[in-house]
Structure formats: structure tokens, C-alpha cells
Amino acid sequence: MNRRKIFSSELLDITIQRMTQQLIENHGDFEDTVILALQPRGVFLAERLKTCLEENIGRPINLGYLDITFHRDDFRRREKPLQANTTHIPFLIENKKVILVDDVLYTGRSVRAAMDAMITFGRPQAVELAVLIDRKYTRDLPIEPNVVGQHVNTVASQRIEVELKGKDYQEDSIWLTEKTQD
After folding, report:
1. Which residues are listed as membrane-spanning (predicted)?
2. pTM of the prediction?
């Protein structure tokens, strides 16, 4: 398997700062905006964005964790059952602007499932999508992110591996991997 680093820790810090500034431009003081992280991989990015936003804005930001397991369209198609994660949304999303956060946008199916799951908690005023990596040319559904860390052109045989500090890794790295033919 070929593996190439496309993000270092330093570049990731700069990217998160840039995404934070873009979110502040779009949402101001975040008084009517909340963040929902897609479980499990969006949580670490959302927590970093939240920390950075709070440092810049000077007020607490509402962050919740959204499990999409039972809303996935492949839930019953798998041989091995999926393990559900915890949904934790300690605030109302009714009439709020919601920012869904995930690490990688691939086919768009997880985002579709997240929107279904989110609606069970109320009807938001608006929904935006923030992703660290947007894999271009791989979409199954017409879903596009509003805030993107990096666009990466990929093909089906490639994967993006996100390794974030605090998520079983000592340092931040993002890798593009490709299966080699045996």
C-alpha cells in the first residue's frame, strides 16, 4: 500500500485557524449557531474548531455529538453490525443555524444520514457543512461543503486517513493511501 502525507501538524493548525476565521465571517458571534460533530470521526475536528472559535470570539460555543448509525442507508446491508456511538446534544437546535462537522467528505451518504438524524432533534433555521478534507470526484449524492480545509482529488482506490492528536495518535497527520496491486 502506497502512503503519502498530505497534511503535517503545522499545516493542520493553519487550516483549522483558516476554517475558524471563515466560520466567524459566516456566523459572527455564534449566538444563534451551534456545532454538531458527526460521530465518531468529526468529534476531534469539531472540538478543535470549538476551542479556536471560543478563543477568537470570547464566548462559549454549543457543541453536540451526533450518531448517524441507525440513519445510514447501508445499516442492514453489513455482515457485521455497526456499533452505535453516543448522541449528546445538550441544547435545542430548533431555529438555530447548525454546522455539521466531519473529517472527510467522500460520497455524501454520511451527511445525508446526519441530516436525517439531526431532524429528530428539531428543525434548524439553516444547515452548513464543514469538513477538513473534501474528496473531489467521489460523490454519490449532490452534497457540497460550505467550509473546507482542503480539496483533494481522489479516485475510488484511494483513501484519506486522518490521524489527529488525542485520537490514539501522538501527532497530527493526514495521509493519502492507495492500494497497490499484488
Report:
1. none
2. 0.89
